[in-house]
Amino acid sequence: MSLANKRVLVVAHGHPDLNKGGAEMAAYNMFNEFRRQDVDAFFLARTDQKPHGGAAFSSRNSDREILFHTTMDDWFLFSNIKTRHMWQEFRDLLMLIKPDVVHLHHYFLLGIEMMQEIRTSLPKCKIVLTLHEYLGICHQKGLMVKPSGKLCYKASPRDCHGCFPDKQPGDFFLREQYIKRIFSVVDQFVSPSAFLKQRYVDWGLDFNRIEVIENGQLPTDKLKRDDSPLSKVRLAFFGQINPYKGIDVLLHAVKSLPKKVQYQLSVEIHGANFELQSGQYQKSTHKLLDQLTHVVKMCGAYEAREMPKLLSRVDWVVVPSKWWENSPMVIQEAFTQKVPLIVSDIGGMAEKVLDGINGIHFGAGNAMDLARVIESVVANRALQNEYSANIRPPMSIEECINQHADLYL
Amino acid sequence: MLNELLNNLMPKKTLKSLARRLLNSLSNRYELLNIDFRYSALGKTVLLGWCANLSESIDEVTAINAGKDLKLDLFEFSRADVAAKYGISSLNQCFGFLAVLECSDAQLQKVVLSHSGRSFSLAQLRFTRVDSVDALIPHIGAESGDAVAFLKTHNIDVSDMPSSAAAARKRPKDQDVVKIQNVMGGVNPHSADFQSDLLNDAMPSIHRIWKSRLAKGNNPAIKQFGSPISNPKLSVVVPLYGRYDFMQHQLAQFSADLQFADVELIYVLDDPPLAHEVSVTAHGLFETFKLPFKVVLSERNLGFAGANNLGVEHANSERLLLLNSDIVPCRSGWLENYLAQFDSLDNCGILGATLLYEDNTVQHAGMEFRQDSSYPGIWMNHHPYKGVPLSLVPLDDLFESPLTTGACMLMHTELYRELGGFEPMYVLGDFEDSDLCLKCHNKGLKIYVSGQTQLYHLERLSQDLVDAGDWKFKLTLMNGVFQVSRWQKLIEEVAK
């Protein structure tokens, strides 16, 4: 494969300088790797920053990184048609860049009609869309979790109306038809997990149109494990803090452990945006934290470049999410540093971490089951080394790009 | 001495409250007010509740705070459950409300609400506090989109942002509709003379209101998006009211169907306050999907019949498809076959289609007259097989039916004009479609339905408002009486 003489436009719904979500990072890493390989690539990221008077675009870092100052006018359909952003400003930009390939890592916040616009303006352009969550299927933030917290296995207009009574079953049907209509202009879908691919196949996308490619990892130094000075078993959580990430499951599990076990344990919580959560969630989390000050430490936000160092001081990474996940970034990062994981036994987590090989599964949302697993890794310290040795290095960004390049041609 | 003793035994406060409770139970209380939920933030409080007046119309709901007038803005919505509980029918006597008060959480104890001359101190009402305004919205039901828009005018944002169409603004009350409600308020559906009361009393006064409304001039604006189609093979007329996002769904689907290439698509906006929004959206939709269409912006709200009639005035093809806005095709490439079936029929007045709900059950596969079981003599439009899975229903590719729904009617434009289109005197819409079918029968033409042409018709779920006291239900019966007065003999023939 060769991307010589091909121009690639990578699109994301945020710039990692400003929003550090997994999808934004994945898109930006790809763009940077393209540039490293001298591919003629551009990066377009949506922003909510204020533009220069009336401008739709601005640049960041270089002329190849463009911010798109726009937003959706319909959050139910991800629609952006009322302003001229898509069918005038973006069209003009497209005609200036004239990419051979547009690889979108999202349509959320940008406007789903972006794909139709690319198809209309550049009929021969290859359109690739990476699906990072279940947004097309589920109006509940793309989580496929019901308002009660129960996991959802399949969307249907009647059941979705049950979750959102102010929307009619017919509205959900139309939403699905509309998204599928726009998806019909996409040449190739990419999913970072087989699980997410299957959800979209069940929903109606053609199996053969979705390629599973894991997010590539940037090369990092493999740091030597830093042994615990107090010979404690060290667990850590990394990621956004919100009710779906299951911090409460972890805290309840720790709380239920016998004191003797608690004192052999240290738990670090590294995560951002706790302060943005609802007051009630913050209150109940703080209440638990206050009872566990001898075990659990809140460490706040972290930067991606700090990960190797943070992970070198951790024995197990815990991913206790209460939603399906797709391919959580932290799993691949932990694999890079050979740290085994304890994860919920559902969705992308169960797929990426192999139970009894390079990690351990526990019943999603089940604090008692997680407590059982924690107790077992405290009792059997040798498991850490054994599982760590079984970890295979995750896919590099270079390999990731190579696999994508095949799709672009 | 005795006094002192009594005071010790029973503090004055308790005595007073006892006396008040006694008084309350003695007097007949017709005025009711209940608060279910409260949400406070940034110096504003939102209350969700309902009020009722069992004896007469509710007069204005007001608020005072520690003796001073307090600014209160009210969003009203229907509470059929409360109305049913107290056996009142008029919207004017019972409604749910969202009230925005310019007062903080702390001041709330001193706030007193009043309506119809009775006061209700918030300190004495029990209600649940919610942490998020989002929690209030599901309680509003069908009108929640409007409620969200109402809250937005007070800078209170509901985080689950609704679709643009649901965010319709607070609709001012239509004065003609208020008059009609008042006329209907006086009609008792349980009286033995109900039908003759409708025919002789209610109908003449309601028709007077409606005639003077229809007599007002209309100077619609026409907006063409893209190039007009020369020699269209079909004109499609779609009326829009409220939910103009349906236009987006239809255009997205039609634009992906090559058979729509030489079709003249005409949207009629029968909702003047939305004219600007719809024009902006239409422009964006054309730029996105590139399918030409025109929008006729009516200057006034004409109702289903009037909107269709207005749209047909702008139709240039010999063939005409009247389509509801909440219809989308099951698949591309259906139109040619539908037209071919139509062309193959002699003596056909209207060709309907098979319409499905989103769960692939039948919404419409032909329509017939059935006498209303509670009101014999009034003929209702019955949809056989409604709600039955389509795969169970033996449908011919093309079949004759006594009637077909107005949601999808294919006919000759000239015939539609010759018949005078839909009859506009079915007030607020019922029976226009069966009436048009009767006009065809009257000319000796037949009604057919295509079993091969299957489209989704995404009607909303029923709203449990169909009790006999409801003015809208009485109006439907009045329209039924009107239809019988026009066509009794023919109806009985067709119904055979």
Automatic annotation (TrEMBL), chain A:
Q: Kindly give the Pfam families that the UniProt entry links to this protein.
A: Glyco_transf_4, Glycos_transf_1
Annotated Glycosyltransferase subfamily 4-like N-terminal domain residues = 21-216
Q: Which residues form the signal peptide?
A: none
Query: Could you tell me which residue ranges the Glycosyl transferase family domain spans?
Result: 230-392
What CDD domains does its record include?
A: GT4_ExpE7-like
Name this protein carries in UniProt: Glycosyltransferase family 4 protein
